[in-house]
Amino acid sequence: MTSVASALQLRRDNGTGSLIGYLPAGFPTLDESVDAAVAIAENGVNVIELGLPYSDPVMDGPVIQQATQKALANGFRLKHGFDAVRAITAQVDVPVLLMTYWNPVVQYGVDRFADDLAAAGGAGLITPDLIPDEAEPWLNASERTGLDRVFLAAPSSTRARLQQAVDSSRGFVYAVSTMGITGARTDVDSAAKSLVARLREVGAQNACVGLGISTADQVREVLEYADGAIVGSALVKALATGGIDSVASVARELSRGTRAPN
Amino acid sequence: MALRDETGPYFGEFGGRFVPESLIAALDELSEAWELAKLDPAFSAELTELHKTYTGRPSLITEVPRFAAHGGGARMILKREDLNHTGSHKINNVLGQALLTKRIGKTRVIAETGAGQHGVATATAAALFGLDCVIYMGEVDTERQALNVARMRLLGAEVVAVKTGSRTLKDAINDAMRDWVTNVDSTNYIFGTVAGPHPFPAMVRDLQKIIGEEAREQVLALTGKLPDAVAACVGGGSNAIGIFHAFLDDADVALYGFEAAGEGAETLRHAATITKGRPGVLHGARSYLLQDEDGQTIESHSISAGLDYPGVGPEHAWLADLGRATYRPVTDAAAMSALRLLSRTEGIIPAIESAHALAGALELGKELGKDATILINLSGRGDKDMETAGRYFDLIDSGAEQS
């Protein structure tokens, strides 16, 4: 079992789900992004999703766009992403998945990217603009290196496509909670619950829900049916406005949603 | 297989669908609707009627000897897409996609635009068919194409000035895709060029290929033979593929795409994607693009908003790799010079985009000699560019040139 699947399993064995936290590498600086990731891991985040800044992030809303644009303007390079993974995993025992748009991986070289990520101690990749149909080089490279590969499933996906997402993914399947892009929302769409149920029907062991989750109550609600709740913009916003202490405290607050209320 | 028969999703190693899973259902729906529409005589009849009674097709060809005298004396013939309703070739594509929008039962359309030509065409079709319409346009482009912004608003469209990234066409596409992911149930994305995920490159090509089909017949009727070369400007590449397509399997007809070289293809400020870029993934397809070592898109530069794009359609990438079409860079200065030359020798003011094809054809004429015939796609008219041209040639201030 890979480190991500083990982490999800461990939580499930304890009768609860996982909190997955997204932060962009290189924001506000590379060192601070490492410190922020370590801080959320120490405050209840079970799996880290570390975003690689990209010039054209079509799945991201304004909060994450602004953060990643700033990272790029500050001189972020892909190799810094591996440095960050190495520094985070050296400090905390939490699996780190990279979230990256596909072109940077292609330009780095898919095999070279997989090798360097594995060497840095990374757990795998979440690929928001890569569907399994186009993913053969990555399926091969992840098979060879044992890295996790997280593909997305959407409320609009057909049963055949959900099946393909489940069969192609390792670690977990990323269930997109709503039709849209990243960013906090008042309500987590009911579409998420039925999507996870449909994923279970086609054999999903681990299904985690992302997009729009920003409160402990939403985390709790999602974990009633999913294995993990993914939070991004709420953490990035806290980091942008209040620094490491603020992002740590938001993570701690969100993690209350992973425990039964008492 | 004939080159003309390629239907995607792949053109050689290019094309495909590199998009979020959330969009796949909508792309599948569009693909299926388009495949059915292509075979449906009622759809063809409706589109043909619109071409004839609304757009003004077939568009003319015009021979331009006074202009051609400056290009080695080769015979030069313009395909007059500038005479279409809304002033460019963009209307050909938009009417087809608007009809398709009705067929799939959606009530809202979105589009990206650079120069504003595709935005104006989409706003026009939305008005004609009673669809809600939102146009995404980079903030930089809303400033340099203010007249087209006013046109779109007058037609009833909402124009969103995109303030992210380089604030040009590439970022307008990003925001349009974000809108589409969010509103896909009600919304169809009327994509303006032969880039993007499948089915857009093949579908937009199919809707633009009427340019070359008409021109091939018209040139044959005028000269008794096929042209020696066909020239078009290339941003995303829709007008170029539109005029190339009918000639793809005519091995004796050379095809030339002219990319925007901005301040020079050897400088950092250009949009010469095939000349200077390398393969990668942008906006849903694998093709050539301008990018740094890490795969971050590099901002393009061109005096022409419509060519100011760091990507190019996958079919062009394929034709370039096959050697079937040749792609060359044309600088801002050469394009503006050709714009003025056509205006003064023939009384036709071209769009700055199309002026890149004219400048390329002048060089081509010198190479091919006076026995050659060159067909040039005059993809749009220059009215929208008067402010840029006025500034460039100092025509507006008190010191205005009177020659």
From TrEMBL, chain B:
<keyword id="KW-0057">Aromatic amino acid biosynthesis</keyword>
<dbReference type="InterPro" id="IPR023026">
    <property type="entry name" value="Trp_synth_beta/beta-like"/>
</dbReference>
<keyword id="KW-0456">Lyase</keyword>
<dbReference type="InterPro" id="IPR001926">
    <property type="entry name" value="TrpB-like_PALP"/>
</dbReference>
<feature type="domain" description="Tryptophan synthase beta chain-like PALP">
    <location>
        <begin position="57"/>
        <end position="380"/>
    </location>
</feature>
<keyword id="KW-0028">Amino-acid biosynthesis</keyword>
<comment type="pathway">
    <text>Amino-acid biosynthesis; L-tryptophan biosynthesis; L-tryptophan from chorismate: step 5/5.</text>
</comment>
<comment type="function">
    <text>The beta subunit is responsible for the synthesis of L-tryptophan from indole and L-serine.</text>
</comment>
<comment type="subunit">
    <text>Tetramer of two alpha and two beta chains.</text>
</comment>
<comment type="similarity">
    <text>Belongs to the TrpB family.</text>
</comment>
<protein>
    <recommendedName>
        <fullName>Tryptophan synthase beta chain</fullName>
        <ecNumber>4.2.1.20</ecNumber>
    </recommendedName>
</protein>
<dbReference type="GO" id="GO:0004834">
    <property type="term" value="F:tryptophan synthase activity"/>
</dbReference>
<feature type="modified residue" description="N6-(pyridoxal phosphate)lysine">
    <location>
        <position position="90"/>
    </location>
</feature>
<keyword id="KW-0663">Pyridoxal phosphate</keyword>
<dbReference type="InterPro" id="IPR036052">
    <property type="entry name" value="TrpB-like_PALP_sf"/>
</dbReference>
<dbReference type="InterPro" id="IPR006653">
    <property type="entry name" value="Trp_synth_b_CS"/>
</dbReference>
<dbReference type="Pfam" id="PF00291">
    <property type="entry name" value="PALP"/>
</dbReference>
<dbReference type="InterPro" id="IPR006654">
    <property type="entry name" value="Trp_synth_beta"/>
</dbReference>
<dbReference type="GO" id="GO:0005737">
    <property type="term" value="C:cytoplasm"/>
</dbReference>
<keyword id="KW-0822">Tryptophan biosynthesis</keyword>
